[in-house]
């Protein structure tokens, strides 16, 4: 891997950027791999990187049906935080939070992780009780969280309409200072480049069409031919049920469209990520100056990369109510990605009933922040054929045992 | 935005309705008698297909009645609408 640095930038600049090396190779698939990962999103690429780096398993392929980064990893609104309610989720997301801290340095790729703070507003007394409970739970788990009252919120976010006669009075908020945003495509590209340099084959335009079994998993069928594999890890987010069907499994997952939109770029007006579960909106300002906003999922199952305009209308109505000055902004683009929702709003990361088959899915509306930790525990699970203590509780059989991990409060509109 | 034909009220826009997920899931006759796996299957496991999906909708801001819709989850095209208890209509719309 050619190291990126200020010197390489100057050197290449003087040569009119003519000699930048490819960031990753473009190999043809081999006949056999020790591990095949299906899905070149953030989680699949991170898994490949940690398999190679932490476990020395480098005979690995990542098979991606399109181009890497074109799934939800390149469509999300880039919010990073770890203030989840339950112990299991708190520790899992916190693992990611810790990896984020110097991931740019580790991958030698600027992920633009910005600790701008995440403010989650409360508008009713019950919401404030839930927020206080979550803040306390976070602190007991060693995760930074603060409870703010109305005056503190006003001071922190002066553009917010928190006046007493506003339609959605702001009674307070939770605040996670280490939360913020990161550049989503850079996460995919940074992991891809680092994994590739450790020997992982990233194979694009290679759609997996079947999972081959012979008492256990022996490989996959793809649009570029059959590939043998000792182990197969499926990391396809919105398409998880489709892949599960190839192995005759059903998952407790529904795929839904999730929409977002951005405004024209303006000078800095909003320093934090601000979200409101109650009125279904969240907004932050990108480094380019655009306001990035989103809401909850479209209610119906869907694989088409678009949603209904009623969601956008509701989101915009709530946004201009909370930030009246934004009413003058023009919106530039809206889009959707497909998210895989579990009934308890927590992911499934672990072994499947078929030997040699592993799934990492169900991250729903909030998996971007989890990319590093998810890849890290999934690599451990595949390498050792058993979960890491951090993801043990996130097994498929929790839906049979009843040990659900309910995160609806921390993971519905909030991503 | 979907335009959905309520079997009783006619076409109305999606925001008058609420979604109820996969249709034709039957509650086990005798819940005490089924295994944990069967109960989990009933409660949580879903087909979630890419393609044709039979699903439940309620006209919650209208007549408040439930009914079934068959819809393509890729194109979002509504293929048929039918009342509870009725069999899904035959659809000749090419492969799902
Ligand atoms: C609008 C929107 C906003 C969001 N906002 C946030 C946020 O602010 N914070 C946050 O934490 N999370 C957010 N999320 C959720 C987050 O983006 C996802 O949970 C996460 O990206 C999913 O993991 P991934 O990156 O691996 O998925 P993806 O990038 O979707 O990767 C899956 C890949 O699998 C590939 N694939 C599918 N089928 C096959 C096949 N048969 N063969 C080969 N390859 C296949 C796909 O092409 C895709 O590239 C948001 C999502 C959306 C859509
Ligand atoms: Zn009606």
Gyration radius over CA of chain B: 15 Å
**Counting H and I runs of at least 4 residues, what is the number of helices of chain A?**
12
* Largest interchain contact: A-B, 24 and 29 residues
Q: In oligomeric terms, what are we looking at?
A: heterodimer
Order of helices and strands of chain A: HEHEEHHEHEHEEHEEEEHEEEEHEEEHHH
Count of distinct strands of chain B: 6
Shape of chain B: globular
Helix content of chain B: under 10%
Number of distinct helices of chain B:
1
Q: Any ligands, ions or cofactors bound here, and which? A: flavin-adenine dinucleotide, zinc ion
| Main sheet specs of chain B | 4 strands, antiparallel
SSE class of chain A: alpha/beta
How many angstroms separate the termini of chain A? Answer: 33 Å
Distance between the termini of chain B: 21 Å
Q: What integer value in Å does the Rg of chain A equal? A: 21 Å
Order of helices and strands of chain B: EEEHEEE
Please report the total strand number of chain A as a whole number: 18
Beta strand % of chain B: 25-35%
Q: Indicate the proportion of strand residues of chain A.
A: 15-25%
Mean pLDDT reading of chain B: 95
Map the helices and strands.
The complex is a heterodimer of chains A (415) and B (96).
Chain A: H1 6-14, E1 32-38, H2 42-55, E2 60-63, E3 79-80, H3 87-100, H4 103-107, E4 118-122, H5 125-140, E5 146-149, H6 150-156, E6 172-176, E7 180-181, H7 184-197, E8 201-203, E9 208-213, E10 217-222, E11 225-234, H8 240-246, E12 254-263, E13 273-276, E14 281-285, E15 291-297, H9 309-322, E16 331-341, E17 348-351, E18 357-361, H10 371-384, H11 398-401, H12 408-411
Parallel strand pairs in A: 1-2, 1-11, 2-8, 4-13, 11-18
Antiparallel strand pairs in A: 3-7, 4-6, 5-6, 9-10, 10-11, 12-15, 12-16, 13-14, 14-15, 17-18
Helix pairs in contact in A: 2-7, 2-10, 3-10
Chain B: E1 3-6, E2 10-13, E3 18-22, H1 36-43, E4 52-58, E5 66-72, E6 78-82
Antiparallel strand pairs in B: 1-2, 3-4, 4-5, 5-6
Bound molecules: flavin-adenine dinucleotide and zinc ion.
């Amino acid at each position: 891997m050619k190291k990126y640095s200020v010197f390489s930038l100057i050197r290449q600049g003087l040569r009119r950027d003519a000699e930048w090396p490819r960031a990753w190779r473009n190999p043809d698939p081999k006949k056999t791999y020790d591990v095949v990962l299906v899905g070149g999103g953030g989680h699949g690429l991170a898994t490949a990187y940690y398999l190679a780096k932490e476990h020395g398993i480098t005979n690995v392929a990542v098979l991606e049906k399109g181009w890497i980064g074109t799934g939800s990893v390149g469509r999300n609104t880039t919010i990073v935080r770890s203030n989840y309610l339950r112990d299991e989720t708190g520790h899992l997301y916190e693992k990611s939070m810790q990896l984020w801290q110097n991931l740019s340095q580790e991958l030698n790729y600027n992920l633009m992780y910005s600790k701008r703070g995440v403010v989650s507003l409360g508008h009713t007394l019950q919401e404030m009780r839930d927020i206080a409970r979550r803040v306390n739970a976070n602190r007991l788990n060693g995760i930074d969280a603060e409870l703010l009252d109305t005056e503190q919120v006003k001071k922190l976010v002066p553009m917010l309409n928190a006046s007493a006669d506003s339609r959605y009075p702001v009674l307070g908020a939770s605040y996670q200072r280490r939360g913020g945003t990161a550049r989503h495509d850079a996460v995919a590209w940074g992991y891809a480049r680092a994994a590739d340099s450790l020997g992982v084959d990233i194979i694009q335009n290679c759609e997996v069409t079947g999972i081959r079994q012979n008492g256990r998993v022996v490989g996959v069928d793809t649009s570029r031919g059959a590939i043998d594999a000792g182990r197969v890890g499926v990391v396809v987010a919105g398409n998880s049920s489709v892949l599960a069907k190839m192995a005759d499994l059903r998952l407790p997952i529904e795929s839904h469209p999730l929409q977002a939109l951005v405004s024209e770029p303006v000078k800095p007006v909003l320093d934090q990520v601000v979200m409101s579960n109650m009125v279904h909106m969240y907004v932050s300002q990108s480094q380019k100056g655009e306001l990035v906003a989103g809401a909850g999922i479209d209610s119906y199952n869907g694989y088409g990369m678009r949603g209904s305009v009623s969601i956008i209308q509701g989101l915009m109505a709530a946004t201009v109510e909370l930030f009246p000055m934004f009413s003058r902004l023009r919106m530039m683009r809206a889009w959707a990605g497909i998210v895989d929702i579990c009934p308890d709003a927590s992911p499934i990361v672990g072994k499947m009933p078929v030997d040699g088959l592993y799934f990492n899915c169900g991250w729903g509306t909030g998996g971007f922040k989890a990319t590093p930790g998810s890849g890290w525990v999934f690599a451990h699970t595949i390498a050792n054929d058993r979960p890491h203590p951090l993801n043990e509780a996130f097994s498929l059989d929790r839906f049979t045992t009843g040990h659900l991990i309910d995160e609806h409060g921390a993971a519905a509109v909030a991503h | 935005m979907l335009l959905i034909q309520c079997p009783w009220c006619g076409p109305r826009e999606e925001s008058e309705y609420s979604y109820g997920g996969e249709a034709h899931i039957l509650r086990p006759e005798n819940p005490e008698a089924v295994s944990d796996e069967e109960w989990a299957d009933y409660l949580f496991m879903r087909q979630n297909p890419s393609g044709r999906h039979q699903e439940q909708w309620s006209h919650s801001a209208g007549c408040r009645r439930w009914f079934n819709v068959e819809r393509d989850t890729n194109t979002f095209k509504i293929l048929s609408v039918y009342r509870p208890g009725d069999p899904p209509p035959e659809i000749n719309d090419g492969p799902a």
